[in-house]
Every structure is written in structure tokens, then in C-alpha cells.
Amino acid sequence: MKNILFLFCLLSSMELLAQDKIFLKSGDTLSVIISEHDKKSVNYTSYDDPEFNTQTLSTDQITKIQLSNGKVIHFKKSSKYPGSYVGIYLGEAVPVGDFAHAEANDERSGFAESKAFLSFEGRMRVFRIIGAQADVSVGAFGVDSGPYFEYENKIDTAGNIKSVSGKLSDYQYGTFSIGPDLGFNLGRKFKVFLPIQLSFISIGTKGDDEITYTDINNITTTINRSSRGVGSGLAIGVKLDYMMGKHLALGVSAKAQDYEVVMKVQERYSNGTNIDYQWNQSVLFFYAGLNLHYHF
């Protein structure tokens, strides 16, 4: 009885871990040991199909897996959406053909239906010369945003999965940044700052994603999935401050933040399968808005 389940994750970019890489060509099958304690092995398979190209996989991508006997993990990266997502399949070693895709929505960058729950920034002057100054600034910023992924309701596969539906959790992320600002005076009341900051991020689902799959035999399986990640990167931007007093300023700011995040995912299947895995992901955020700044 075929019971093909799959998970696909939309990534802004996929970076496979550098250690223990396995190169697969079309038709290759390679068994690897996932757990040194349990001595369980799985097969990574690449099929002779136009959408299956040579893949580079890492044994470190999946940190823990529990499968019933005879189950296999497959890896697929679609040429239809190059570099966009990967798929992990559970079931028998058979090609599954085309499958539904995940699409990014605007919430990925914190724009649509997002709300800040924390925003703070303070700056301390390091030195000042005529018309310019250098500051060290510290800021924290948090956002509630919508789901990372949207799933299609119907899947046209090679006769394995009939339908999928799900309720996806909103994402929540917070950042902390520290670094130098180079500022210039524009008259007596206005200042322009160009921040270049080291920034840290914590991101994850507020609850669990709940996704239900039904195969051609009308067997339904539900997955509960939670995602958490931490990372660091660089934040650059521009700020225009209007000095309302000696220390307090009303500012307009725009900033881009680029992070390398290690995402860790826990999945719990209604059929008893449990999977924990992780990947490295590049995440790029933009935000713009009004801020109150305090100049120490």
C-alpha cells in the first residue's frame, strides 16, 4: 500500500551543510546511517526524470529520523522552481511526478499583515566633528507576521497523493542589532544616519502547522510541525532624524537585514513517524517606518 507523504519547504536560498556531502547522479541510490545509536539507514534516490538533476546532499541535514521498516526518504528539487524549495518524501521508492508547490507571500519580508510588537533604538555618540558625528546604536525590533508558505489544495501527482489541506501557523521574529552609525547634520534640526550593524535574529512559528494528506486509498495522515531558527547577519540602512530636543528625535528609517539562519524543524505524524531535521537558510528582511530615537 503506497503511503507517500511529503513536506516541502520554501527557502529564499538553500545552503547545504559543508560536511559529508554525497553527490548523486540520475538513478543512483545510496544508503546512509542517520543515527549511530539506532543504526537505521535510509536511501536517497535520484530518478531518471527531467526534473531530477544531479543533487548534492548532506548526511547532516537530517539530524533524527524514525521510520517503520521499508520506508524510504527521497530528495527532489524541482527545475520548475529552481532554487526555491526542496521536498522530503516518505513512503516507497517510486517516482511521484509533479506535485503541488509552495508559494511565498509578502509576509516573508514582514510587510503584509505584519505588526511590530517591540521596537527600540538608542544611540551613543563616539565622536563629533563639524557637520558629522559617529554613533554606536543599539536596537531591538519584533514582528508578528503571516505564514511563510501557502499550500495548494489539490495535488496532481503520479497517482499517490489525492489532496492536501492545512492550517499554517503565523511566524514571529525578533531582531537585536548593534553597530556604528555615521551621521551628518542637515541644518540645525535634521540628521542623516547610515547604520551598518551586526544583527541577530530569532524566528519561528507561534504554534504548530497542521497539514493533512489523503492518498489514493483514502488514507489520511496529519502532520504537526513546528519551526525554530536563530541566526546572525548584517543590517544596513538609512535614517533621517528630526531633533525635537537635545536628546529626543523623531525619525524615518529604512533598513535591510540579511541573515544566515539555522532552522530546526520538528514533525510529528499521526502514523507514528517522528522527524527532526535542520537546514541553513538565507533570510532577507526589509522594513521602513517612523521611529522615536533617543540620543545619549
> Low-confidence parts, pLDDT < 50 over ≥5 residues?
1-118, 146-159
Q: Give the proportion of residues in helices.
A: under 10%
Q: How many structural domains in the coordinates?
A: 1
Overall form: elongated
**Binned strand content:** over 45%
Quick check: average pLDDT?
56
Order of helices and strands: EEEEEEEEEEEEEEEEEEEE
Sheet/helix structural class: mainly beta
Number of helices, where a helix is a run of at least 4 consecutive DSSP H or I residues = 0
The rounded distance between the terminal residues' Cα atoms is 68 Å
Radius of gyration: 23 Å
Strand sequence of the main sheet, in spatial order?
11-12-15-16-18-19-20
Strand elements, count:
20
Q: Please give the largest β-sheet.
A: 7 strands, mixed, barrel
Mind explaining what this structure looks like?
It contains no helices and 20 strands. The chain has 296 residues and is mostly beta strands. The strands form five sheets. Strands 11-12-15-16-18-19-20 form a seven-stranded mixed beta barrel. The chain has a three-stranded antiparallel sheet with strand order 1-9-8, with no helix packed on it.
